[in-house]
Amino acid sequence: MKGVVLRTLRAIDWDFATPRLGYLAPPHWYPGTFLPALSEALLEALTPVGGTIFDPYGGIGTSGWSALRKGRSCHIADVNPVALLVSYATNSLLALTRIDKASANNALGALGRLVGRNDDLFGERQLFSGVAHLDDQVQAICTPEPNAILNLLVVGEPQWSLLENWIEPSTLANMNNLTQAILASQSAYLRLLGLCMISAIARSVCSQHASWGHIADNVRPREMTAQNLYAATTRWLKRTKAFISAPMTQVSTERDIAIKPRIYLRDWSKPADVGPGDADLLLTSPPYADAIDYTLAQRLSLYFLGYDDRAISSLVSAEIGARRKRSKTLSRSTWSEQLCAALKDQVTWVKPSGTICLVLPHKDSGRSSGEDDIRTSLEGMGWHLFFEADRSIHQSHTRHSWTSIKKETILVFSSRK
Ligand SMILES: C[S@@+](CC[C@H](N)C(=O)[O-])C[C@H]1O[C@@H](n2cnc3c(N)ncnc32)[C@H](O)[C@@H]1O
Q1: Domain range enclosing 361
Q2: Contacts of 384 (CB under 8 A, 6+ apart)
Q3: Distance between CA atoms of residues 351 and 63, nearest Å
Q4: How many other β-carbons are positioned within 10 Å of the β-carbon of residue 37?
Q5: With a 6 A CB cut-off, is 140 part of the ligand 1 pocket?
Q6: To which H or E segment does residue 373 belong?
Q7: For 247-282, how does the pLDDT look when each residue is reduced to its tens digit (9 = 90+)?
Q8: What's the number of domains the chain is made of?
Q9: Ligand 1 in reach of 203 Cβ (< 6 A)
């Protein structure tokens, strides 16, 4: 078995210089995400169809997308409420598409109507069919149910007075109308999809266009400019429709019903309960030391979910890694210690016959303690390295972020010698 897996892994071009067929822009710009082709290749090589993957630092759920497209279930955890909102919205849409594509399209069509579209973006049939059973359908295939995840992530009314610092007044008034229309929906699932859309477009409708790093660093816009909300929502709806239309591995109807996303709010900087031990693969890219402020980058989205600056500061303190810690002398060793401590809890989610695959910053980027410590820690727990590869990464425009990281390392461990 290991021989076949090794041959498959060795045959992959990990830089993905030629984009894989069907690769589409994701429905959110969250930073530092997996290239979908990367999670897809790893998951196909390391899990059986019908298997389960676990991503403890799941971000917006890219590894879940790969799992659901390829006929696997997933456990996705993260500490960032925006990541979980997007992860739930996108993974539930894919799970829904597997069992009833018309229903997933219908959900987007209904959201389109809430934002004032009544054209044929979703086709006439979908446009006029109801959404009465949507919440029940989603509840049957996703954990937790839509209402429960909303209660977990939304902490109050949007912080309009804080948003005034970022969004031009007439655009903000339109955002207010849009948000009210979404929050008035009877369907918790539509409210959730609508909030995901608002989160995805918040940055493009604000007046700080330099980079998400400027928003993270609280660098407010010099001048306010009106933005076209209708165009932004239309772009998101089209992009999300294309996202759920990408090809999926066909499995039997019986298996389709069993393919489920499960989304968890977890802070791995604190000790955690023992996991379910049913994952075939732990597949993750942990936060990198001194690289990205994930919470602060989502400042605007968090305002929409009701967080004020104080509430955001308390979320920030949970984050492992993070760019703002880069000036602390021990930032990299603390990061490495936190990742190793968390791994002890995270391995309890994996079957003894399973696999662990970590994508880490390359040693050359000055973070060797992380890779070395993690290897030693997993060895100590009986997990042995059986494959290792380097890949180069491309940086998008940010504000002094990602700094020196140009290369990543893929490490694959098994508990069998
Ligand atoms: C490299 S990103 C993962 C991105 C993900 N692979 C994707 O494609 O979206 C690292 C993630 O770790 C999360 N994270 C940071 N500290 C955490 C903590 N203490 N507990 C749980 N997640 C944490 C961040 O919120 C971020 O989403």
Answers
A1: 3-415
A2: 378, 413, 414, 415, 416, 417
A3: 18
A4: 19
A5: no
A6: helix 368-380
A7: 898 887 777 778 899 999 999 999 999 999 999 999
A8: 1
A9: no
